[in-house]
Amino acid sequence: MDKTLIIGYGSPIRGDDAIGPLAVERLVERGLPAGVEAIARHVLTAELVTELVGRERAIFLDAAAGGEPGAVQVHRLEPDADAHSTMAHFLDPSELLAWCRQLYGQAPEAYLITATGACFDYAHCQLSPVAEAALERLLEQVERVWVG
Predict the structure, then answer these.
(1) Could you tell me which SUPFAM superfamilies the record lists for this protein (predicted)?
(2) Does the pTM of the predicted model rise above 0.90?
(3) Domains plus CATH for the chain?
(4) If you count DSSP H runs as helices and E runs as strands, how many of each does the chain have, helices first?
(5) What separation in angstroms does the CA of 12 have from each of 53, 55, 62, 139?
(6) pLDDT 10s digits, 48-85
(7) Mean pLDDT taken over the chain
(8) Cα(96)–Cα(130) distance, rounded to whole angstroms?
C-alpha cells in the first residue's frame, strides 16, 4: 500500500468546484513518486475510510468558496469525532479521519489544501481564469506536503 493518498474532490460540473479532481488529473499526468497514490471523487463518502487505513499521510484537495478568489491554503487536519454529517452524500475530511480512528484505531497524518474559487456556475471541468492560475500553486503545495 502506498504511504500517501491524495484525494481530490469536488463537482466536475460546478466550475471551480472541479479543482480537486482536476488537480489529481494533473498530478497523475506528471507522474507520481513511488509511495504516492491519487484518486478523484465527486464527494467524500464513508467508503474512503478503507482507502485511508494504513496510510501514513492523506492530502485532501478541494475548492473553497469563501475568501479571496485564487488564494491557496494548507490546513493540518485532525480527526473530528464531533463532526456530524448526514452520511447521505458526503463527509468532512476530519470526520473521515475520525471514522478511521474509531474503526481501525489509527488515522493518517492529514492535510486539506484548498484553492478559493471565483465561479461555481455550471461548467464541465472548466475553471475560471483565477482558479486555473491557483491550480499550479495548489500543486506546488501538494508536492511540499508529500515531501514532508
Answers:
(1) HybD-like
(2) yes
(3) 4-147 (3.40.50.1450)
(4) 4, 5
(5) 27, 27, 12, 18
(6) 999 999 999 999 999 999 899 999 999 999 998 777 66
(7) 92
(8) 30
